[in-house]
Amino acid sequence: NVNILTPKTNDTLTCGNQTLTFLQPDEKQANENDQSLVLTVDISHLTVLLTGDISTEVETDILSQYPGLKLDVYKAAHHGSKTSNSLFFLEQLAPSISVVSSGKNNRYGHPSQEFLSTLSTLNIPVLNTQVDGTIQFELKDQYGFFTNGKYDEEWHLQKEEMGEGFQRRFSIRT
In which residue ranges of the chain is pLDDT below 50? Predict the structure, then answer.
């Protein structure tokens, strides 16, 4: 007797200081990957976008529905596929860092060279499970910490007060 909920566009779920906002289109999509849940996770003034396996078509829909969407952490769509993660999408979102999860030597060649080049062009650092192993994220106060199981290294995301109001500015150090 489990109650199953199907979130719709703009539905939110809040628990403590965490808010999930669902962005995926409500209409049935021809491409099964475009049926993926897409959501932002807002935690203590930090915004993460989780994209499932959406294609560039859904990315375009999301940008038209949420034109001012900005985020801090981008979880790459479809394991960094070339059918997702468009330059225009990433330019508009302006994430401070991207995380991509894909198996080493996978038969699809994920993450694609196109995706990695886009990140490089936009100066967006990437953590990649193929290179970095297990990636963990921990949030403490105004700091977000990425660590991995392969290297003794941390990436720090720090929000800073700048002048009037709160600005999204990060320093990323390794």
Answer: 151-152, 161-174
